[in-house]
Amino acid sequence: MNHPPQTRSTARTTLQGVLLVSFAYCLVGASFTANSVLGDYPYAGGQAVRYALAFLLLLPLLGGRAALGPVRALTPRQWGRIALLAAVGMVGFNLAVLAAERTSEPAVPGVFVGCAPVIVAVLVPLMEGRRPTRPVLYGALLVAAGAFTVQGWGRTDTLGVVWSVAALLGEVGFAVLAAPVLRPLGPRLLTAVVCAVAAVESAVIGVAVDGDAWVRMPDQGEALALLWQAAVVTVIGFVAWYMGIQRIGAERATLFTGLIPVAAALTAPVVGTGTFGAAQAAGGVLVGAGAVLGSGMLRPGRRRPAETGSRPAGPGRRDPGRGPRRPAVSAPAAVQQPPGDESGVVAHRDGPAPGQPHRPRTGDGPPGP
Fold first, then answer.
1. Is residue 98 included in any domain, yes or no?
2. pLDDT at 218 over 70
3. Number of domains, the chain
4. Is 174 contained in some domain?
5. Residue 215 domain-assigned?
6. Most CB atoms closer than 10 Å: which of 87, 105, 361, 362?
7. How far apart, in whole angstroms, are the C-alpha atoms of residue 218 and residue 226?
8. How far apart are CA 107 and CA 1, in angstroms?
């Protein structure tokens, strides 16, 4: 069966977005394993080094001075959103995870972060003035259940739960705050800008908390871990994540958060920090099922206009700077035969909409010889 070109294009875009977001989250999951190497390195200083190095690596990819135009055009409100994105979704998220793991087992913040798709599936539609999409919501619940199955529930206390909730809010903020500044900057430029801001924020926190010891020369293992975090997880992972959001939106992209614990469970045995068993395999199946259900991969031709961030204009709605929108005209309705005409072929300049009566206009009628 041949699908219309528009359906094939939508399916291709959805598949591209799914692959990009999946790749990004797998890199983030693998980075959790790399974090174990940085346990003795100053937290804030390590984040500052990571994001500063990522910014330097991105500079040659931005196109020189031409990239400064969109940055100069940013409004104070957009700069505030970028600063909040870096503080909440990057620096704050990592700080919350680290603080939670001081009094809790790593599974506890992981389970909370695994609930991010459920919150985003409800929050994003409400912010756009529409109802949550049922397939996305059901898929998010499956992903959360899969994340819990992969990680289980570990030992914790009240403070660990509080910091785990903060990590959850950081993950939600990272998804929700990015969309409005992604449009004017694009994936690469936005990644570079938020990395620069996050590096400054991390350095300020490091000096305030650790004083002169906020940064030090890393040893060989720490240097490799920081390089991995900067070059692979931040540069490649963040750009892939933002490119995926452009194609499928934050609401569906966050479904793939469940791949973080799956990737961490797969890579942990490599460095001897964990095992992969039946629970991890079952949780991975649940995460995959939820992501497929909610992402729209099974129904590429039924993409709703609301998922693209725009609403269809109704009969009484006006587009900015335009007059009333005319009803959509399908191809078959554009050519109709008026009553009483027996020529068999009629060419119309403007055909009626489906279900509307025909009203002949000047110039309509049978064609000449």
1. yes
2. yes
3. 1
4. yes
5. yes
6. 87
7. 9
8. 46
